[in-house]
Design brief:
Elements lengths: L3 H27 L6 H7 L4 H7 L3 H16 L2 H8 L6 H18 L4 H9 L3 H27 L9 H18 L6 H19 L18
Length: 220
């Protein structure tokens, strides 16, 4: 049987989710800079004090909105691994990774103002999570490139130690500047272009002749 304390915790968690949903809706309608705590309370609806009980100020609200997005970004490579089938090539996996990055950005377009604000103000939570994302994506792309090199698929003149961060910086720049919202067809074309750029920078064969992804010996 649920205890009163447990019920209070459930209600508190439900209220927090409702506040964040309302904040995101208002971000979509007016932009983060114009969202006030009073507007959120009216939208939930709840007392303004309830909003402040969960988020003492706009900084705490900003962190909650952004962290939800940033932590989800870290799950992209797991989704790509789950998506990859035996018939998918290395090129297709690289393209799907970029597509997933673009989709995640497009699906959370309402948070652009909040994220841009956190980046501009160099909030510690943003810098920390952004570094984690860069490390995770570098590990993913770098692992594919390294396994490809071990399989003799890269150009002889490629120095992976210097090439990997440069290629990733190109990918990251495109993703960071990608306009949102964007139609799926336009998103797919952008992902294909970026995948081809990284492919031609590193690989010997054409994308159409890319080996199967399953042939790579990737470290878990």
């Amino acid at each position: 049987m649920t205890t009163p304390v447990a019920e209070l915790r459930i209600d508190s968690a439900r209220t927090r989710r409702a506040i964040l949903r309302a904040a995101r809706d208002l971000c979509r309608e007016a932009g983060y800079e114009h969202v006030r705590m009073a507007d959120i309370a009216e939208r939930v609806p709840c007392a303004r004090a309830t909003v402040y009980n969960h988020f003492a100020n706009r900084d705490e609200l900003l962190e909650a909105l952004c962290t939800e997005y940033l932590e989800g970004y870290l799950r992209i490579t797991a989704r790509v691994r789950a998506w990859a089938a035996p018939h998918n090539t290395i090129f297709e996996v690289l393209r799907e990774t970029v597509a997933e990055e673009l989709r995640w950005r497009a699906a959370h377009a309402e948070l652009r103002g909040a994220l841009d604000s956190a980046r501009r103000l160099r909030k510690p939570f943003y810098l920390r999570e952004d570094r984690r994302i860069d490390d995770a994506m570098l590990l993913w792309f770098g692992g594919i490139y390294a396994a490809s090199q071990a399989a003799g698929l890269l150009r002889d003149d490629v120095d992976l130690a210097s090439a990997t961060p440069v290629v990733y910086a190109m990918i990251d720049h495109v993703v960071a500047e990608f306009p949102v919202p964007t139609a799926e067809d336009d998103l797919a074309r952008a992902a294909d272009r970026v995948a081809r750029l990284q492919w031609h920078a590193l690989y010997v064969a054409t994308p159409e002749r890319a080996p199967l992804f399953g042939t790579l010996r990737l470290q878990e």
